């Protein structure tokens, strides 16, 4: 697909969610402790899915212990978030699973093979909080109800600088996992070069009033973005000055409805909460609405408010 776009001279933008999946899967494979734990968890879940007796016993134990009546989730190699769901569900059902494995429904020989070790449980409990923001980022960027390209760079930098930043309290497994993903993301998106400031994702982030301050970039990087925007504006002005008689072609047919269903409007509560969690200080949920008197005033307001050192969020509404 990329080669096809290059041959046709089209702009190609890689799917960030897919790229993130590649980074996470690669980290799973490189960190042996996590890879081993995934294998042990899959073996256990597979047993419950194939054994009717064990599955029925699990349901009974859930009732006795007051646990949610949820089935165990199996990991799928092509969907990394299924690993997060599998681990999260195992934590939820740990007591019930342990009770079933040590009941008369399961043979002692099977229990020795299937029972997850304390070391593997420790890995599961440590890695789930790290996978949670990655899962939310994937869910946000895979949404079809609102445009997501402008949020790619803020989300990526929030992952690198907040959620994937190693802490002193992190175990060695967690530190290695965070480092592997961070290095892979930096390599794929060239975050340490000027190229990251010149791609279409960063341009979209700047044009989105929620992220126009670009607080996740250095002052030098923000200057590069501003110069790129000025070049775009100059090219656009030159192009429009040469176009005549196209206003009628751009009008919207009367039979098309301009109404938007409230459930598909950008910025739904779910997406707002997810973005606020992911971006932290890089994102402000509430926007102040300013109505400029003219297009010139709107442009002046946008540029005037775009102080790169301030983390602001202003929604511009054309009068």
Task: For the structure shown, list the relevant keywords.
319 residues, two-stranded parallel ribbon, 2 strands, elongated, disordered C terminus
Task: Describe the protein in words.
The protein has 319 residues and is an all-alpha fold. It has helices spanning 2-8, 16-30, 32-50, 52-65, 81-92, 94-101, 108-114, 118-141, 152-163, 172-189, 200-207, 219-241, 269-279, 295-305, and strands at 288-290, 314-316. It has a two-stranded parallel sheet. Helix 14 links the parallel strand 1 and strand 2 (314-316). The radius of gyration is 25 Å and the shape is elongated. Residues 254-269 and 306-319 have low confidence and may be disordered.
Overview in brief:
The protein is mainly alpha-helical.
Give the termini separation: 41 Å
Assembly annotation: single chain
Count of extended strands: 2
Which term fits the overall shape? Answer: elongated
Residue runs with pLDDT of under 50 for 5 or more positions: 254-269, 306-319
Q: Major sheet, described briefly?
A: 2 strands, parallel
Largest sheet, spatial ordering of strands? 1-2
Q: Return Rg in Å.
A: 25 Å
Give the integer mean of the pLDDT values. 80
Estimate percent helicity.
55-70%
Q: Output the helix-strand order.
A: HHHHHHHHHHHHHEHE
The helix tally amounts to 14
| Beta strand % | under 5%
Write the layout of secondary structure elements.
Layout: H1 2-8, H2 16-30, H3 32-50, H4 52-65, H5 81-92, H6 94-101, H7 108-114, H8 118-141, H9 152-163, H10 172-189, H11 200-207, H12 219-241, H13 269-279, E1 288-290, H14 295-305, E2 314-316
Parallel strand pairs: 1-2
Helix pairs in contact: 2-8, 2-10, 3-4, 3-5, 3-8, 4-6, 5-8, 8-9, 8-13
């Amino acid at each position: 697909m990329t080669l096809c776009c290059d041959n046709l001279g089209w702009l190609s933008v890689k799917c960030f969610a897919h790229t993130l999946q590649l980074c996470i899967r690669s980290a799973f494979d490189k960190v042996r402790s996590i890879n081993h734990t995934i294998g042990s968890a899959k073996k256990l879940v597979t047993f419950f899915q194939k054994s009717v007796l064990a599955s029925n016993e699990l349901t009974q134990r859930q009732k006795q212990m007051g646990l949610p009546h949820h089935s165990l989730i199996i990991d799928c190699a092509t969907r990394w978030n299924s690993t997060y769901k599998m681990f999260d569900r195992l934590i939820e059902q740990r007591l019930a699973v342990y009770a079933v494995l040590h009941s008369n429904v399961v043979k002692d020989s099977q229990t020795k093979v299937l029972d997850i070790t304390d070391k593997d449980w420790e890995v599961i409990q440590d890695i789930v909080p790290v996978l949670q923001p990655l899962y939310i980022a994937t869910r946000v960027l895979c949404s079809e109800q609102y445009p997501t390209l402008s949020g790619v760079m803020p989300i990526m930098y929030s992952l690198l600088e907040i959620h994937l930043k190693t802490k002193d309290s992190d175990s060695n497994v967690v530190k290695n996992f965070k480092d592997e993903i961070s290095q892979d993301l930096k390599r794929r998106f060239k975050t340490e070069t000027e190229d990251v400031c010149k791609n279409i994702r960063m341009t979209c982030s700047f044009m989105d009033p929620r992220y126009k301050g670009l607080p996740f970039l250095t002052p030098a990087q923000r200057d590069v973005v501003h110069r790129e925007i000025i070049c775009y504006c100059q090219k656009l002005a030159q192009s429009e000055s040469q176009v005549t008689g196209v206003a009628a072609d751009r009008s919207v047919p009367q039979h098309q409805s301009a109404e938007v269903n409230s459930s598909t409007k950008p910025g739904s509560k779910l997406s707002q909460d997810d973005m606020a969690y992911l971006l932290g200080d890089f994102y402000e949920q509430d926007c102040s609405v300013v109505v400029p008197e003219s297009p010139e005033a709107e442009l002046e307001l946008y540029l005037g408010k775009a102080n790169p050192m301030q983390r602001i969020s202003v929604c511009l509404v054309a009068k």
